Every structure is written in structure tokens, then in C-alpha cells.
Amino acid sequence: MKIVQISDTHLTHTGGPTEDGFRLLVKHLNEEVRPDLVVHSGDIVVLHPDDAADRTHSKALVDLIEAPLLVVPGNHDVGQPGLNAWAGINVTDERVAAHEAVWGPDHWRHDDEAAVLLGINSELLTSDLQREADQWRWLEKTLAELPVGVPVLLFLHKPLWAVTDGPTEHQVDVGPVARDRLLGLLDGVELRAVGSGHLHQYRQTQRDQAIEVWAPATAFLVPSEDDRLPETRHELGYVEYVVDDGEVTAEFRTVPGMPQLTVEDVPAIAEAIAAMTAE
Ligand SMILES: [Fe+2]
Ligand SMILES: [Fe+2]
Predict the structure, then answer these.
(1) Which of 99, 152, 153, 233 is the most exposed place for a label (fewest CB within 10 A)?
(2) For 98-140, what is each residue's pLDDT tens digit?
(3) Dist CA 32 CA 17 (whole Å)
């Protein structure tokens, strides 16, 4: 079974460079890779969850992928929890509902003969919304009912394990409280892979029996002065997982001809960062 994880497409209804790169990715997946399944690990839209035009246009673009598609939301799709949300964009019931109206449920279980895939909304974790409590209840029930002997792959936007020991300006992973609770629930589950996005860089790390995979963005690279993690790969692309006889492996893949854009190449992002810096 071949699964492709794409992430951080940051698409906008105004088109532009992130759409040009995304169209190259779609062509490559449809014509060359032909995966059994594609998972999008969030930040589908360029910047703001309240921009309905961006969401509608992104849906039309992502639907060009011929393989079956599963989606989990990112902070730019539904907002994020906490006091210091990026650009003050917090997760709310309304934002999650607007996302679900276009993309379907924000958490899901997908059963295949070779594996079980689970997707969760990382942006709800520690939000204290009723939706967070509902997702925890769903997780407890779902994990308790998993079949024996089938590998499990979990997908979420923010990394499950800590990204850095040092302080960060904005939340970069799910945080220690949600992490401990999730890992407690996952104890005993045949977890073989955890795929996340958000960081716009690739890394693969062994975590007990599972590989932790940070998927690269397809849209743009983050500024190099933020590189605290030299072991990561700073390149746009996607991840290809192969599930074979209970084993799960993952590889970084590039898209032929895809330009390596940075934030300066994406006007909506560059302007938002400039506006925040000027505050
Ligand atoms: Fe992103
Ligand atoms: Fe993100």
C-alpha cells in the first residue's frame, strides 16, 4: 500500500506561486506516483480560516488529485489554541464547522486491508472547546476498538513530540499536556507512524516502534534564521509511505520542476509577517 502525505499547501483564491507549485504536484501524483491514498496534514489555505473564497478555491484544486483523499486541519484552516496564536487567530467552533462543511470531519478513522489510518485535529488540543472533549472521547473509543495485528498510522497537523527544548514565540507542537495524554492512550496500540506538518521541513525520527515524520510543505520554506534544527531537510516536497507486510517505511520525495519558494515569494504571507513585525 502506497500512501502520500502532502502538507502546508497554503493555497489562495488569487492563485500565484503556491498554486503553480501545487499544480505540478498534482500532475506528478496523478501521472507518476499513483498512490492508493493521499493525506493532507493541514494548512490547506494560505493564511486565514475566515476566508471562504480561499477555502472553496483550495477544495477545487485539491480535488484535482485523483487518489482518495483524507484531510486534517491546520492552524491556518481553523485557528489554533492558546494565548499567543499566530496573528491572534484562535480556534473556534465556528471555524472548525466552516472547515468541516467543505472538507468533512476534522477527525477520522480509515480502514484499509494493510493498515488503519487515524486523523485528528491538533488545533483543538488544549483549546477547552466542547469539540476537544468530543474528540478525546472519540479517540478513547476508537483506539480501544482497533483490530489486532494491523499497523496504525496517525496524522495530525502539529508534531506530537516536542520540537525544541527552548522557548518558541508561537506553539510549534501539541504541547506536553496533550502529548502525555495522547501517548497514554496510544500505549498498546500498534502505532507504526505519526505524520505531521506545520514546520515546513522534513525529518524522520524513530519513536519506539513508530517513525515520527515531519512532512515538508509544498508551498514555501520558512526563514533560514529560524533553523534551530540542523538535522532536518529544508526542501519542498512530499512524503511517500509504503505499508508492506505490517511494516511502515517513509521517504522524502521531490516534485520535478517545483521551485523552492520562500515566504518572500508568497505576497499574502510576506505582507502578514511585515504587518505583525511592524506592530
Ligand atoms: Fe504551514
Ligand atoms: Fe501550521
Answers:
(1) 233
(2) 999 999 999 999 999 999 999 999 999 999 999 999 999 999 9
(3) 22
Lowest mean pLDDT among 34-48, 163-177, 219-233, 242-256: 219-233
Q: How many domains does the chain have?
A: 1
Kind and range of the H or E run holding 212:
strand 210-214
Question: Measured in angstroms, how far is the CA atom of residue 246 from the centroid of ligand 1?
Answer: 31
Distance 245 CA to ligand 2 centre (A): 33
273: left (phi over 0), alpha (psi -120 to 50) or beta: alpha
> Ligand 2 centre and the CA of 59: distance in Å?
18
Cα of 192 to ligand 1 centre, how many Å?
Answer: 24
Convert the pLDDT of each residue in 234-259 to its tens digit.
999 999 999 999 999 999 999 999 99
- Is 53:45 a contact under the CB 8 Å cutoff? no
The number of angstroms, rounded, from the C-alpha of 32 to the middle of its chain's C-alpha atoms is 23
247-253 and 238-244 as β-strands: parallel, antiparallel, unpaired?
antiparallel
Q: How far is the CA of 97 from the centre of ligand 1 (A)?
A: 20
Q: What is the CATH number of the domain that holds 110?
A: 3.60.21.10
Ligand 1 centroid – CA 127 distance (Å): 19
Q: What distance in angstroms lies between residue 214's CA and the mean position of ligand 2's atoms?
A: 12
Please report which confidence band the pLDDT of residue 224 belongs to, taking 50, 70 and 90 as the band edges. Answer: low
**Residue 148 lies in domain:** 2-278
